[in-house]
Specification:
The protein is of the alpha+beta class. The chain folds into three domains: about 1-90 and about 270-290, Rossmann fold, CATH 3.40.50; about 95-105 and about 170-255, ATP-grasp fold, B domain (D-amino Acid Aminotransferase, Chain A, domain 1, 2-Layer Sandwich); about 110-170. It has helices at about 15-30, 65-75, 85-90, 95-100, 115-125, 220-230, 270-290; strands at about 1-5, 35-40, 50, 110, 130-135, 145-150, 165, 175-185, 185-195, 210, 235-245, 250-255. Helix 2 (about 65-75) runs antiparallel to helix 3. The protein starts with a strand and ends with a helix. The mean pLDDT is about 90.
């Protein structure tokens, strides 16, 4: 069993082995041969039983190129998990509004094509919130994300660009953001990420910390399962980021189906559910080719 894990372009500045190595080790222990393949160089994958974009960091920085890769993977029937249709849907954070329309409790989200100050005022009225968060619809690691107070103008790097606007969830500073890992739709484990004092961003790049979470909040697993059920295709792996809002209601912050860190070092089974899900997908793909 040969598995290609898509990884960053060699020129990508951030180290990725800390998340790649545990995932590759788990798959190798299950009998697979794992090969890191820069997603920018992925052309011929005929020698692989499975292709997965688990560490395809930087796709957001070259999004048109990423979409072309997904188109090629779909047209050439790559054995890709998660499937290209799901990856394409998940790449634009406007999917959060779609989840809300389907009855899944999500952070309120307003998507605009060319953001201006009038959009901020409309969002403040719609969300009944003086404080907002704006971010690009295609982004990672909170790049281009800003917290705006009641008298703040739109930052220059966000003006007249596609953005999503959300109310600031102040509870994140106190409780944090819960990340639930699910494999084949089944819950595996969770962590909680908390921002540094005075910040709202939970990523370690911005000073946040990631801590073990033995038991997620009541209702979080059910909410994660509902979010995955509302997605357009099944996910072999998923990280569902959930926050309690300022009234204590659990809401989907993000549904990470492309290249999420899965924190396998916190998995009680050591990653067995992760490997089982991906290996089953690889076997199914191989069997399909033989029939």
């Amino acid at each position: 069993m040969r598995i290609a894990v898509l990884v960053p372009d060699p020129d990508w500045p951030e180290p990725y082995r800390w998340t790649y190595d545990p995932e590759a080790a788990a798959l190798t222990a299950a009998g697979a041969t794992v090969v890191p393949l820069p997603w920018t160089q992925a052309t011929d994958v005929s020698g692989f039983d499975l292709v997965t974009p688990l560490v395809a960091w930087g796709y957001h920085a070259e999004y048109p190129r990423w979409l072309k890769l997904l188109d090629r993977a779909e047209a050439d029937h790559w054995p890709m998990i998660n499937p290209p249709s799901l990856l394409r849907w998940n790449g634009d954070k406007a999917y959060l509004a779609e989840l809300a329309d389907r009855g899944v409790s999500s952070v309120p989200t307003m998507a605009v094509e060319s953001c201006c100050d009038a959009d901020l005022e409309e969002a403040r009225r719609r969300f009944n919130s003086d404080w907002l968060v704006v971010k690009p619809p295609v982004s990672a690691s909170a790049a281009g994300t800003h917290r705006l107070g009641p008298h703040d103008d739109l930052p220059a790097d966000s003006r007249h660009r596609p953005l999503i606007i959300q109310p600031l969830i102040e509870e994140i500073a106190r409780t944090g953001e819960f990340s639930l890992m699910l494999f084949g739709g089944d819950y595996s484990h969770a962590v909680v990420k908390r921002p540094k004092s005075g910040d709202f961003r939970v990523q370690e790049l911005h000073g946040g910390v990631t801590l073990p979470c033995r038991t997620p909040p009541d209702g979080a697993i059910e909410l994660a399962e509902a979010a995955l059920a509302a997605a357009p295709a099944s996910a072999a792996y998923a990280r569902v980021d959930i926050v309690p809002d300022d009234s204590g209601v659990l809401r989907i912050m993000e549904l990470e189906l492309i290249e999420p860190s899965l924190f396998l070092d916190h998995a009680p089974d050591g990653g067995e559910a992760f490997t089982r899900s991906l290996m089953n997908c690889a076997r199914t793909a191989t069997a399909g080719e033989r029939t």
